[in-house]
Amino acid sequence: MCKKYKYVLPFIVLSGLQLGGLTVFAQGPGPGQRIPLPPIPIKGDTTHTLSRHFTPASAAKKTPDAKGFIQRWLVLEPVKKDIVRNNIFTDNYLRTTFSADNFSPDYTAVPRNGETVNVGNQDLKWYALDSKTFNVNLYHFTYALNKPKYGILVWLVTVIDSPEEIKNVRMAAGCNSGSMWWLNGQEALLLSGDRDMIADNGTSARLTLKKGRNIIRGAVINGPGMANFCVRFIDEKGSPVKNLSISYE
Fold first, then answer.
1. How far apart are CA 89 and CA 98, in angstroms?
2. Do 102 and 15 belong to one domain?
């Protein structure tokens, strides 16, 4: 074999294996796997409608999807932030920012659908929505409302009703780019750095879901690029917890 092909052929084979591996890796969802996300609206799309990717939440019973992901959330219009890059999202930056730009110091507070709150000098409205996909795409949310899509902080709240006390569960979340999550007023999970949205990218320490009402609060922050997240609970065996009811009040 000619010497120049002697080295080119292994490179081609290796490259093919790497690409094949990336394809398999992207087929999720599942722990540590990338997940196919809904497409960004095409440049000519000027409809700006929530119904494309969301359904207004109702009083009808809502449970996690087949893989345990929580799709019903109260979502606050974005807090506009001057963020030019995502590598600033250190633990300290996130804690400081979420504390300063907070809609309420009561981490068990559940806002009302349609309520307007003040964050800094911005008056922002709450929306109770069901995502049509396992994740909640905040780019689609802000695009639909004709609000800023980049350089944003978005607050989230949902209420989980458990038919029994469930010990030793973990909250598992993925986000783009940084986020922080609380359960019943206590910090559960912090995802810092410039991340892609990967299911179960971070998991909490062991938690207990109380019998009855449990309140999740979240904050997702992003500079350039798409902002979205997914959240579910997993049990000690890593299986999704699905015997839950989800509401926004």
1. 11
2. no
Give the single-character DSSP code of 156: E
Once rounded to an integer, what is the mean pLDDT over residues 23-29? Answer: 33
Task: State the residue for tokens 């920012």.
Answer: 97
Residue range 1-15: average pLDDT? 43
How far is the CA of 204 from the CAs of 29, 119, 157, 169, 200, in angstroms? Answer: 19, 28, 18, 9, 10
3-state secondary structure of 161: strand
Q: Which residues lie across from 118 on neighbouring strands? A: 123
Q: Which domain holds residue 13?
A: 1-30
User: What's this model's pTM, rounded to 2 decimal places?
Assistant: 0.83
H or E segment and range at residue 7: helix 3-25
**Following CA atoms 126, 230, 50, 44 in sequence, which dihedral angle do they give, to the nearest 10 degrees?**
130
Rounded Cα distance between 172 and 114, Å, is 28
Looking at the structure, tell me whether residues 2 and 51 fall in a common domain.
no
Domain-embedded: residue 192:
yes
120 within some domain:
yes
Taking 90 as the threshold, does the pLDDT of residue 6 lie above it?
no
